[in-house]
Amino acid sequence: MDKHNEEHIYVAIDLKSFYASVECRERGKDALTTNLVVADPTRTEKTICLAVSPALKAYGIPGRARLFEVVQRVKEVNKLRLSKLMASGHAAGTVDERKKYATENDITESTMAGFDYASYNANLLDAHPEYELTYIVAPPRMALYMDYSTRIYNIYLKYIAPEDISVYSIDEVFMDVTHYLRTYHMTARELASKMIDDVLKDTGITATCGIGTNLYLCKIAMDIMAKHAMPDERGVRIAELDENSYRRKLWDHRPITDFWRVGAGYAKKLEAAGMYTMGDVARCSTGGSNDFYNEEKLYKMFGINAELLIDHAWGYEPVTIADIKAYRPQTNSISSGQVLQEPYDYEKTKLIVREMTDLLVLDLVDKRLVTDQIVLTIGYDIANLSNKADSFSGNNYDHVVNNKGRDSIGGKKGTNRDYTGEITIDRYGRKVPKHAHGTANLGRYTSSTRIIMDAVMELYDRIIDPSLLTRRITVVANRVCDESKVQESEQFEQLDLFTDYQARAKEKQKEDEALSKERKLQEAMISVKKKYGKNAMLKGMNLEEGATTISRNNQIGGHKA
């Protein structure tokens, strides 16, 4: 791309295996040669790995694998390494010999018969087929990752103004570099490379970069082109796309789910209609009204979203970073979600909903916001339809009683054979009872714990199936707005001759006094928590069996801080 081209030029930068790279850096290791996963092993091997180092990904392990999948794949790799080793006639050293030499950096004593040593260093493993492949399991440290992300963002600010940067996630940004290329006398590739070099020198973290003539193209250049390109000596991958090169190189690319915003649902619908690539979608959009494939067909399939899909099929994207910065949503919400470590029954789930609501209201008060609507969603556990008796070892779930007062488990521990409600399929293809969902309208804007808690508890009892075990909970404060705007707005009421307005005025005064007292208590709690920590002041319910507030106060985004 010509550095003097007046077209918009965008750069997308994605830090490579960010969490894993930070953990390697903290250990003085190279993420490109160190086998490491970021996961919390205390959550069992079913826990999702937040990141996998590039070295370990080379063995076919995806970036968001579950820990047991990593364990299985490493076992497979070691079996293959061992079979090749035995075929070569190698004789393993004695136990004493292995202990003697397993003292070097990145080398440990092997735990698998047939290998001399074990190592998590990819270079050592390549040079020594007699070494067992091993890896580091690093518990997540979210506060540390946020600190690194801030440091890296400040590096970007040395080159690009904040109004030309859009932060997409903790490890990914978009930049409009159009007006910086002449200033720095650089091409977009040169400027991106310089910023990545600066990040690498300061943090030891490398990156993948996409350059495009619009935000969509730079994202696709990064996600598809760069991530499948050969890295340079720094581990950096950079790719560029404009509308013409996009059509030339990617119209036939499969799978179509590699493209941004095209998920499995979109792909399934398109495949059913005989479309498998972005080129197919683009060609469909050019058909006439009498053709089988035409634009109207796409609108019938996807509604208004077809417009965006068609634009992206052609490589168009009119939205700029300035548009993103200027966007203000018509409505706002604050939510709190939680996936439980084990299935909870009716009473324990109610406790968690109370805890989450209490914290959500304090968040509203702290932000000086109010709401007039609460939304509650309860996701049920797959064990409700399972025959696995050991699903709840250590928990007394033998008798979960439904609202008709009879045992709904059918004699099987953790099994609801009497369930006749609607069943859905989760993202893993498993059958699960359809989630419960409901809305409570408060009738007024408020941030009162008492008012909101009463509404949520009534809503909970209304939508929950007491016979089912719960796994996921989400509480949302919808239609939130600044409390000052509500106080300033005028209230109008139709008067009548049969209401005692003097008595109502006294009731309102009493209510206002109670709310004022409650507000002072809320603000005092927030002040103490900010000064001494979130667990410095707790409520009695936070100490009950099954409560999660204390542990969640030590987390960021559901993971260890």
Topology:
Blueprint: E1 10-15, H1 18-26, E2 36-38, E3 51-52, H2 54-57, H3 67-87, H4 95-101, E4 107-109, E5 117-119, H5 122-127, E6 131-133, E7 136-138, H6 142-156, E8 165-169, E9 172-176, H7 181-184, H8 188-203, E10 207-212, H9 215-225, E11 237-241, H10 243-250, H11 264-272, H12 278-285, H13 295-302, H14 305-314, H15 321-326, E12 334-344, H16 346-366, E13 369-380, E14 423-425, E15 431-433, E16 436-446, H17 449-463, E17 470-478, E18 481-482, H18 483-488, H19 501-532, H20 549-552, E19 555-556, E20 559-560
Parallel strand pairs: 2-7, 5-6, 10-11
Antiparallel strand pairs: 1-9, 1-10, 2-3, 4-5, 8-9, 12-17, 13-16, 13-17, 13-18, 14-15, 19-20
Helix pairs in contact: 6-8, 12-14, 13-14, 16-17
Task: Please characterize this protein's 3D structure.
With 561 residues, the protein is an alpha+beta fold. It folds into four domains: 10-18 and 141-250, Reverse transcriptase/Diguanylate cyclase domain (Alpha-Beta Plaits, 2-Layer Sandwich); 36-134, no CATH class; 256-323, Orthogonal Bundle (DNA polymerase, domain 1), CATH 1.10.150; 334-560, Dna Ligase, domain 1 (2-Layer Sandwich). The protein is 39% helix and 18% strand. The strands form six sheets. The chain has a five-stranded mixed β-sheet with strand order 8-9-1-10-11. Strands 12, 13, 16, 17 and 18 form a five-stranded antiparallel β-sheet that branches. The protein has a three-stranded mixed β-sheet with strand order 3-2-7. Helix 13 (295-302) packs across helix 14 (305-314) and helix 16 packs antiparallel against helix 17 (449-463). The longest helix has 32 residues, at 501-532. Residues 1-5, 93-103 and 388-415 have low confidence and may be disordered. This is Type VI secretion protein ImpB. Keywords: DNA damage, DNA-directed DNA polymerase, Mutator protein, Nucleotidyltransferase, Transferase. One of its GO terms (molecular function) is damaged DNA binding. It comes from Agathobacter rectalis. Belongs to the DNA polymerase type-Y family.
